[in-house]
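As promised in the previous annual report, we have extended the structural survey to additional targets. Below is the entry for Low molecular weight phosphotyrosine protein phosphatase like.
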Amino acid sequence: MSVRSSASSSSSSSYNLLEAAGNIATKIQLAVVSAAWGAQLTLLTVSRASGCIALYQAAPRIASQRPRHLIAGHTGDWQAYHVTTPNLERKTPLDSDRRPLVIMPEKKVSVLFVCLGNICRSTMAEGVFREIAKEPQYKDLIGRVDSSGTGAYHIGEGPDHRTMSTLEAHGITDYVHHARKVRLSDFDDFDYVFAMDRHNLRDLESLQQRGKPDSRAKVQLWGEYSGSKKAEEVDDPYYGGKQGFQTAYEQCTRFSRNFLADVFPNVKTA
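The corresponding structure token record, generated without further manual editing, is:
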């Protein structure tokens, strides 16, 4: 896929990057980038989850021709250009003769994890995700992270002791949470609301429809990020032994990595 300028290389020409739709699951309003070049823009990647796109472009080296939405950075003997607004994240230039033009969401991504009681699975997911989000490549990209339950069975309680011991066994020792029930406002406060199993998913979809069907949140099964063609459920380990909590931890770690790779396809991991 490519986009070409409809005008010659004059300062008034522009590329309209329209609202992402179709094969991009989450629609995102993309910036209109004023361009002074007539070169081809080639679509590099499309993030299915966030609507992020990455374009390669042949940018002018002459300062007066640089679009005002772009800032320059140096890598070797060429200049890389990056879309920027007050809230846009800067990206590391690629080591290539082509200049990457990367468009990212205009704010940090927020995530809510939901299970039934908010003391086992969703807290495990939150604890794991928070820890991974601390890594240098993600710490400036992730905003609010929280968890809640579809039921009101444990409001105000801390996570199950087996959740905490499993997290601690993997070096996560600073996680604190008090159970709460999911709220209608959550669907506008978070970009993603993840259900641990299909029962949770149906409850969340029903609640969202009763409240504000056009709300901001994308409601998904967390196990859609299993890394395989088959979505997984995180089974409730409440009535089982410690192995169930270990399995939940391993799933949440894998799903977190896959989700972040999908949302931020151009972020290099260590």
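The longest helix spans residues 242-263. The first strand starts at residue 2 and ends at 3. These points will be discussed at the next consortium meeting with the crystallography subgroup.
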